[in-house]
Amino acid sequence: MAMATTITEGAALYRLLAWLSPAYPVGAYTYSHGLETAVEDGRVTDRADLVAYVSTVLRAGAGRVDGALLAAVWRAAEAGEDAALDEAALLAAAWRGTAETALETMAQGTAFTAVTQSAWPDARFAAFAARHPRALAHPVAFGAAAGFQGIPLRSALQGWLAAFAANLVSAGVRLVPLGQTDGQIATAALHPVVEAAAEAALAADLDTIGTAAPMLDLLSMRHETQYTRLFRS
């Protein structure tokens, strides 16, 4: 069921864990979502700053629209509604504030699509990907695959948002720098934020959804020309 609160056992659980694993080759570790510039500017200097930054991304930035897109795509895939799938894919490609955040989501989506088609083939997902060659944002590709392959919506959504947050925490641990224990404390502190973001995504309407975090976009734009950098965004 779309609103299941616990994940299905067996194959669906195994798929979800595999797709969210850091070992799944989507290249998430190469992106910081503007965090590198925030650290360079002295805006993020400790664990509390990092939690605040990632919370903003989830509540008012890309996490807000990406969660809503993932949910919409999952529902369209589960219902077999190709037109709704295609519309969400086009919206996801357009809803990017900067070239760097566009690269971040589209490159990861392309990588996710390629490896998932090879390792977990599904004819419906392959047909969707063929209609949008190398043009599926990561939450759209993930949501469609989850919907087609029977992973419950709430589990897929919470898992994807948690992985997104964890990747930014990992970037912060390397950039600030912080210790690994601080990184895990930050991840634990973000749990209620991830839960709230998932609930907001489940209730979102793509006709009215939007973001309100212009500083994140400004940091991302400045990262594009930052003199030295470790990350691609």
UniProtKB/TrEMBL annotation:
Keywords: Chaperone, Cytoplasm, Nickel insertion. The keyword Cytoplasm applies. The keyword Aminoacyl-tRNA synthetase does not apply. It is found in: Cytoplasm. It comes from the Bacteria. Its main location: cytoplasm. UreD, UreF and UreG form a complex that acts as a GTP-hydrolysis-dependent molecular chaperone, activating the urease apoprotein by helping to assemble the nickel containing metallocenter of UreC. The UreE protein probably delivers the nickel. HAMAP family: UreF. Belongs to the UreF family. Required for maturation of urease via the functional incorporation of the urease nickel metallocenter. This is Urease accessory protein UreF. The gene is ureF.
